[in-house]
């Protein structure tokens, strides 16, 4: 996967601009094009040190925290075999049938790495929630991680191989979305497995 850009954006500005006031923006989005190539965007929360620019250009303020949303984007030539930390994606297309399947293995538990690289630690979430409550437009921290898969020009249907309470999967048109509470990701020992089937309408010749 070729990383194309990394954007570091102030969290409050991003959320306000995106209109995301009721759920976390943290997660992974995969866009699969008809050619088999595509793009990936990973959005992660972080609590970096107060920047020198802010500290040096201010007077009379004791800054306490810098909360940021880091968006990293990249592209791939083929989806099968893609890995983000320990999250694995398998993809296959049925030749001549304009259909295929995508299977995402989502590690959970104490040894899982992928979601911990996207969200702040449990000990920092209270501090982050307090900071978000002080923003211009109050932002709720629901402590979820979202995975979105969009297949260009296709109808999709996704589900968990084994349903898990409080983990929601929705499919609409060409897009499948799964929303996972961090509490579930942290407490489970078995991985979640998202299975997505897709199909493109077959074009028939006209006389």
Summarize this entry quickly:
With 207 residues, this protein is mainly beta.
Descriptive account of the structure:
By secondary structure, the protein is mainly beta. The chain has one domain. It is built from 4 helices and 12 strands, in the order βαββαββββαββββαβ. The strands form 2 sheets. A 7-stranded mixed beta sheet has the order 1-4-3-2-8-11-10. It has a 5-stranded antiparallel beta sheet with strand order 5-6-7-12-9, with no helix packed on it. Strand 10 and strand 11 form a beta hairpin. The longest helix is centred in the middle third of the chain and has 12 residues. It is elongated, with a radius of gyration of 19 Å. The N terminus is likely disordered.
Features:
disordered N terminus, single chain, 207 residues, mainly beta, five-stranded antiparallel beta sheet, 41% strand
Helix-strand blueprint:
Layout: E1 2-10, H1 11-18, E2 27-32, E3 38-46, H2 52-56, E4 68-76, E5 83-84, E6 87-94, E7 99-106, H3 122-133, E8 144-151, E9 155-160, E10 168-172, E11 175-181, H4 182-187, E12 192-199
Parallel strand pairs: 2-8
Antiparallel strand pairs: 1-4, 2-3, 3-4, 5-6, 6-7, 7-12, 8-11, 9-12, 10-11
Give the biggest beta sheet: 7 strands, mixed
Assembly level: single chain
Structural class: mainly beta
* Low-confidence regions: 3-22
**Count of runs of 4 or more consecutive helical residues:** 4
* Order of secondary-structure elements: EHEEHEEEEHEEEEHE
| % residues in beta strands | 35-45%
How many structural domains can be distinguished in the coordinates? 1
Radius of gyration equals 19 Å
The overall strand count is 12
Residue share in helix = 10-25%
Shape: elongated
The N- and C-terminal alpha carbons lie at a distance of: 43 Å
Strand arrangement across the biggest beta sheet? 1-4-3-2-8-11-10
Mean pLDDT: 84
């Amino acid at each position: 996967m070729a990383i194309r850009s990394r954007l570091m954006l102030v969290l409050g500005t991003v959320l306000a601009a995106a209109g995301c006031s009721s759920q976390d923006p943290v997660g992974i989005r995969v866009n699969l094009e008809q050619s088999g190539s595509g793009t990936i965007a990973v959005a992660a929360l972080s609590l970096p040190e107060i920047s020198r620019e802010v500290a040096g250009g201010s007077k009379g303020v004791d800054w306490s925290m810098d909360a940021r949303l880091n968006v990293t984007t990249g592209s791939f030539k083929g989806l099968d075999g893609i890995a983000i930390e320990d999250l694995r994606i398998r993809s296959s297309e049925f030749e001549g049938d304009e259909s295929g399947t995508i299977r995402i293995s989502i590690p959970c538990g104490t040894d899982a790495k992928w979601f911990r690289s996207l969200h702040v630690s449990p000990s920092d979430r209270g501090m982050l929630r307090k900071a978000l409550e002080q923003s211009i437009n109050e932002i709720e921290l629901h402590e979820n991680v979202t995975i979105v898969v969009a297949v260009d020009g296709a109808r999709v249907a996704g589900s968990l191989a084994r349903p898990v309470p409080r983990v929601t999967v929705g499919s609409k048109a060409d897009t499948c979305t799964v929303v996972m509470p961090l509490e579930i990701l942290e407490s489970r020992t078995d991985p979640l497995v998202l299975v997505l089937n897709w199909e493109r309408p077959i074009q028939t010749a006209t006389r």
